[in-house]
Amino acid sequence: MAQRNRMISRGGLSLTHPNAAGIDIGCASHFCAVPPDRDDEPVREFKSFTADLERLGDWLDACGVDIVAMESTGVYWIPLFELLERRGFTVLLVNARHVKNVSGRKSDVLDCQWLQQLMSFGLLRGAFRPADEVCVLRALTRQRATILRTQARHVQHMQKALTQMNINWPTPSPMWPARPARRSCAPSWLVSATVASSPH
């Protein structure tokens, strides 16, 4: 291993993270690569279930890995990122565009090996991720913003449903609440229930 490091240093690159691992994130499974001298099977596939993610963390720990690089694929990386971070690993979330500029890599196995090599030489930079408390607050504020943006659409759906039931609910004025106007073909029981539940 030491001889290999000296040869790499002469070539212009130094092995800055010898205990690095690379993970290619997927929807149903993740492919993880460790240094070839750490295991007889340096590339393994793990499903995305919680028990499999725990096994992935155990395997990385057994291989002596201390830093992990993974691609930011959708939101599938979040559970694994948080699990590995809680277990004490240094986890770097890298932009997939920065590591896919090499032709010939067509498989998940090659992707995770390429990530592991780049991380070993210190050629990857992790994206900023705030603290857990900030992530929770950010998720709540984004969910609130989404609900506020879509509330008008839901109101339109309700108005459409009332119109299909032949109930006319005009736009309320600032001073007086609106009441449904009964039409000749509207069901009387539905109109009565709607009027009874409207504010007075």
What would you say this structure looks like, in words?
- Strands 3-2-1-4-5 form a five-stranded mixed sheet. Strands 6-7 form a two-stranded antiparallel sheet.
- It has seven helices and seven strands, in the order αβββαβαβαααββα.
- With 200 residues, the protein is of the alpha/beta class.
- The chain is 46% helix and 14% strand.
- The radius of gyration is 28 Å and the shape is elongated.
What string gives the helices and strands in order?
A: HEEEHEHEHHHEEH
Strand content: 5-15%
Q: How many helical elements? A: 7
Shape assignment = elongated
The largest sheet is: 5 strands, mixed
| Rg over C-alpha atoms, rounded to the nearest angstrom | 28 Å
How far is it from the N-terminal to the C-terminal residue, by CA?
A: 83 Å
Q: How many beta-strand elements?
A: 7
Largest beta sheet: strand ordering: 3-2-1-4-5
Overall mean pLDDT stands at 78
Notable characteristics:
single chain, 200 residues, alpha/beta, five-stranded mixed β-sheet, two-stranded antiparallel sheet, 14% strand
Write the layout of secondary structure elements.
Layout: H1 2-10, E1 20-24, E2 29-33, E3 43-47, H2 50-62, E4 67-71, H3 77-86, E5 90-94, H4 96-99, H5 108-120, H6 132-164, E6 167-168, E7 181-182, H7 188-197
Parallel strand pairs: 1-4, 4-5
Antiparallel strand pairs: 1-2, 2-3, 6-7
Helix pairs in contact: 2-3
Short description:
With 200 residues, the chain is an alpha/beta fold.
